[in-house]
Known about the structure:
Layout: E1 2-4, H1 8-12, E2 18-20, E3 26-29, E4 36-40, E5 44-47, H2 52-64, E6 73-77, H3 83-86, H4 89-96, E7 99-103, H5 107-110, H6 121-133, H7 141-146, E8 165-167, E9 172-173, E10 176-183, E11 192-196, E12 201-205, E13 208-211, E14 214-217, H8 225-235, E15 242-245, E16 251-253
Parallel strand pairs: 5-6, 6-7, 7-8, 12-15
Antiparallel strand pairs: 1-16, 2-3, 3-4, 4-5, 9-10, 10-11, 11-12, 13-14, 15-16
Helix pairs in contact: 2-4
Amino acid sequence: MIDVSTNIGTWRNSCYNASVEPHSNISIISGRASPSYVIDGESIAVIDVCFPSDAKNILTFVRHTLGRDVNDIRLIVLTHSHFDHINGVDYLSNKTHAKLAVHSNAERYLTGNQATVFVGWKKFMQYMVFMVEHGVPRPSISEAFSMTWAGIPGIRKGIRTKVDYWLIDGEDLPDHPEWKVIHTPGHTDDSICLYSSQYNALISGDTIINLRGRLVLNPLLRLDNEAIIESLNKLKQLQVDVIYPGWGPPVFGKDILDRVYIDTSGK
């Protein structure tokens, strides 16, 4: 049986909803656009930080819900370099001095040496319409000025935070060996997922998303159709009972990767 939450209205926000998952060492912070995931262990890792306001909510959650010092956040991981996953990184890094980990392909994007790939106006406008339809709030004026506006396709703009770990496929996540890095190109060439065989859990980034209650291979701003299908086939070799996606609530069920909808149009 597959359990796919359709409560997108709650998920899309309000600025701050959070839950501690009983199935793993993950907590979910529902960001203004994309969610952040908090891995709680001897130290804390944060996966993706959309806006500075999301970073503030993460700090509040760590202090008041987990009851921990924010300096226990030792690692920030980016699943890829798109703007709706990285623009709170500088704020969170400044407040915690956590180290930053990204896939090695992200170097040219995060340093500002190259813009993330612009996949065409049609795909970009479809993405913007999707954001509007799902009520993603625009940043406030103060937040707009505090952001680097990095990761917007076609615009060469990097983040200020230095990258400490360039991740490669198959290696353990620094300080969290129960999570393994899986390189899953297709949405972008630097996309990664994180997999835990201990929890049979997958943090899928924007490779797989919960789109209007359906688990799909992300069609939004997709770079490479063939590569993303190959990435899904790679993930199907894993035992996954829960997916924490880059959009929407988590999904639970046996053989859930076999139920991922594949739209090869890349729209």
